[in-house]
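Cross-posting from the modeling subforum.

Setting up a comparison between two proteins and wanted a second pair of eyes on the formatting. Protein 1 (sequence, then structure tokens):
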Amino acid sequence: MWPRFGVKISNSTFCIAYAKEDGKIEVIANKQGDRVSPACLFCEESEIEVGVTAKQKMSAKPGVGITNNLLLFGPELEDEEIERALKLIPCKFNNEVKEYELIKQGETKPHKTLSPYEVCVEFFKATFELARQCHLHEEHPSVVLSIPEYYPHRNWKILSEAADEAGFHVAQIITEPTAAVLAYEMAEDEKLSSKIVLYIKTGGLCTSLALFELGDGFYTVLKTVGPFYIGGSQITSALADFICNEFYKKNKLDPNESRRSKAKVTSAAENCKHILTSMPTTQVYIDSLMDGVDFNMQLTRARYESIMQPFLNDYSSTLTSALKEVNEDNRKIDEIILAGATLKIPKIQSLINSLIPDANVNTKFAPDEVVAIGCARQSLFIHPDHLDLENTEEIYIVPENIYIWHNDTTKVVENGIDKKSNKLNEKDILCEKGMTVPNVFRIFVTESNPLPSTVENNAVTFSIQCGEFMKDIQVNDLKSKDGKFHLEISIELNDEHIKHPVINIKPADVESKEEQIKK
């Protein structure tokens, strides 16, 4: 059961963190010692490589490499989405059969075809191998996944299936903004007054924002906006153009004329961008860039920032407009959470500070690790029964939070509210939005008040709420144990029952369940 994992896979990178039983969260480094790996796949022969080595080899042979896979992940993509994606992947993509075609240099037919789903499985396999460093006994370690908040709900189940195929047991899927807020544990101090938290993510391709209100131990998503197609890839392109121009000035050779040379320049520009995020200067060296001629020059952070200035102007304009949209009520923003590797760049952090000077920018976690850390932290709160699912059971992705609470029928109660004290009876989350659950599972629900001995048949009433749907369910012959009711829930969620889920409750066989957990 321990450790549990949190995984974030995006267009540009993937990252895995794990939670120990004592609550500590750590990010797992890859073989090269990097805590975040490139979401790149390379396949020249039969062997598939993923991560750093794939990215390195792609610079010389881009036709057999895949990046930005999530752009084409999921069914029923719009023509505009496909057209945009085709400009950002290095290999060919057959839109009729929805498969990448990996073609060796000098050949015309693909030696390997892969669907976006299969590529996603390979990325999960890579994270699963990293997870093996921490788990020895669990055949299918439990994981919480993240997904961009703007992805359609149909993609959630496909993402879960890809992780399951790689070897994980998916306990839950949460959105990236939610994961980032969970990483900082801002909502867990119930004594804190209300806070407004702004989430900003800028990755390789896109920028998105989300606004949260935190208070009384809860968080509420006020609004999300995006994606806006502005990100780190545009900085990489600006650097690549600069290198090509410098090379042309000295040698009268244009790397843009060769696909291989252009790929080498792009790879060097990405490395340069990452180094100058933390270092004041770097040496840019490209072996045999074109016609056997090498490229070598020193680049300072000041020069780098001048190269990216046009991007900063566009980014500032986009962010200003997005802030007005996400914070239309002009609330005072107290905290800012950054996500995405592009927001590691000091100049961009300074820009955000200047736009929202009164907010505290949280930098405890690296922006490209914070989502995976939040997913791992969320795994700490998953009830053990949710981690013991049979593979033969039908699995549902929950579309909305489903709440359950003991409705104390010995008092005057309406919709879960005690009219005398005007306080809500204590609620438990039966299923959280995005959680994967079987059609039958066990939970426990807190007893609001001990039942009097006069209640007929030990009848207990529970209230169920799913969005606007609310229902009271009576369970006979039920007794609490240590102030909790142990229940077996059967649930049916299909297209007809999304707004009106079919839910049945009966007493759980507590002793047999405990024996099952021990085994």
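Protein 2 (same layout):
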Amino acid sequence: MSTTEPEKAVQKEVEIKKEGEEEQEADDFSDCLRYNVETQTYSLILRWRPLSQLEMIGLAVQLSKKGLIIDTLDIGQTNFDSRGIVGLSNILRTNQVLANLDMGHNELGVVGAQRFAECLKSNTSLEYVNLEWNKIGTDGLIAIVNGLKSNAKSSLKILDVHCNQIEAPGAIALAEYLSTNPELTNANIRFNPIGDRGGKAIAEALGHNTHIEAIDMARCQIGDETMEALRDAFKSLAAMKENRRLGSSSSASASASASASASSTALSSASSDKSEFPSEHPLVAIMLESNDMTPKGLKALAVGLIDGADYVRPTQMSLHAAKFIAKMGPEPCVDGLKMLGVYLSMKNSSLVTLDLGGCNIEDAGIIALMGALEAAPTLENLYLEKNKLTNISAENLRDALKTNKMLKEIDLHQNRITDEGITKLIVLLSENAVLRLIDVRRNPLSTRFNPQTWRNENCPKARMTALLWEDRREGISSEEVEESSKRTMFDPTPRKIAAARELPPLKPSISKEASSSSLSSSQLPRATPKTTTQEPFNLSTSNFVAHEPVPKPKPKPEKLTLDWVPTYK
């Protein structure tokens, strides 16, 4: 279908709707516009609003006619499928400042991904693309990667393809692109069955790339082989830094592995023209939840963190629900946890948040970590829920954390700690002035035990405001406890999109019939990204729509950036 044919189809449909329904605004998306006064650009948030193929084409035609500058387009959960790519391609072709595109939770499929890949071959503005939950499959990701490879001017920094039925070949293709392209800083591939074959490829790509900000392979069916590949990658990165320091990047030092030399060569060819070698690797998060590594794999990962600690300094690591890291068959094995403890206690350790929830580490695991917890220099948040911990762990934690001056939050909910163990933690709160939260909800406390009463009678100096416990006599349901215990883990969504969703929609104060020609330019808020000037308008009319002049300028909101920041609560 040519460019003019969609326009005629849309115009014909609009004419039909207008007959007897002059006020009908089915194709008016103005209520979905958000205006950012700081960046002076618009966001179009259409999430949850079903979009047909014709509506998408119509939107493209209207945006093109009005020349509206939109830097954020959210069409997630709109039943958007491969047929809508026709309209989207027109938007991408005519709008050269669109930086953020969210198409998550739709029905693109392999065909839609292949069509979108054609758009990526020439686009130079997109920096964030979200394709999560779209069933694009392995072939779809390979097509997208090939589209990016053919575009030397691509600005894409964040690509989210999690939960898309992608297998190892897709991960390998993505890894090859990561190895040679320093622009892409985050590729979220979690919840895809890539296995160790795909996981090793991603890990090896990290060894060639000094720009990756997150490793997110949660629930990817990876195991010890991937952990060993991550160990080698961290060693390679540390060796590259040492070679740069010595001024001999072309040759590996005596202690560096052969792979370090190959990594250095690949890096220099990929980024010599685009960026300088960073003094510290930007890696922030390592997310490996719900995978199958054993104590051997955890030990390899910890060794890699130790060897690369001077250069690779992640602040967050999640091993949540990695149920085999403290087991060797049916027997406990804490070799990996001991090595992790060595890393945590190092002076140049960097971890601020560590999630070991649901890992079945039991009391033996806490004993293995005790030495590290006494003086971990950076650790502030430790999550240990659902680990079958008993009163023994409660007592060991009290002894270990007496001298700790950094840890602020520890999650112990849904373990096997009873009344006696809770009293140990209450005593800890009288000895440690830094801890601000100990979560002990859903532990088997007796109905006759009240922590507040025990504290008043036995340990009045304890700060009970820091103890989060469940009073069964108050009728708190398990669902309420579960809901209040949820925390947000790593999220690659740029702040720009998250903030745009919260902005109020533009509400025109002048009717459709009003003409903008009689209004002075001072009455219209203007958006001037780059060299283009634009004004708020109603997409379903031919005239601009003015807003009432504001007597006093509103205070500017907090500056919005494209950088994602993993958050916890």
